[in-house]
Amino acid sequence: MKNLIIYASKYGCTADCARKLADILTGETEVVDINKQNKIEFSNWDRIIIGSSVYMGQVNKKIKTLCEDRKIELMGKELIIFICSGIPENFNDVLNANFSDEIREHTSEAVHFGGRLELSKMNFMDKTIAGLMAKQKAEGKPIVEINETAILELAKRLNC
Ligand SMILES: Cc1cc2nc3c(=O)[nH]c(=O)nc-3n(C[C@H](O)[C@H](O)[C@H](O)COP(=O)(O)O)c2cc1C
How confident is the model at residue 66 (pLDDT cuts 50, 70, 90)? Predict the structure, then answer.
């Protein structure tokens, strides 16, 4: 199975998850940062894995546009979605609000990979919001964590 992982990340958490997943997937796997590559070719790949972080309830705009504009192509592929965010309880709401019915129904797995709040990397506004959101003041330290088990478990299922 040939895997194409397409991700969007602001502070690196989703990028790290994409690479962690790629490292343990069997079969040819390519990782693409949607912010660095405009033209993404699907035809060479059997499985498309889409990853995004969440800001103010929203998945990355380019990821949303890709899913909508290239829906027909995606319907011909196995489709997986992974999300990095700070509030796992909102995972289903995030999926419902950001992906169309067709995309959600076609997706064989949608997984939450945890998240990371790296306050030291953030601009002032994001840092303020993150601080409020997490109700913690552990400056410079991750408040939430990447869910390594969720990445491993997804890879195990996909490698079968
Ligand atoms: C300004 C800001 C807004 C955020 N909004 C949300 C949100 O609405 N829901 C959520 O679950 N997580 C939210 N988060 C948490 C991020 O989704 C989380 O830190 C994620 O791991 C960031 O991944 P990235 O580094 O790949 O962008 C927010 C974080 C920041 C800094």
Answer: very high
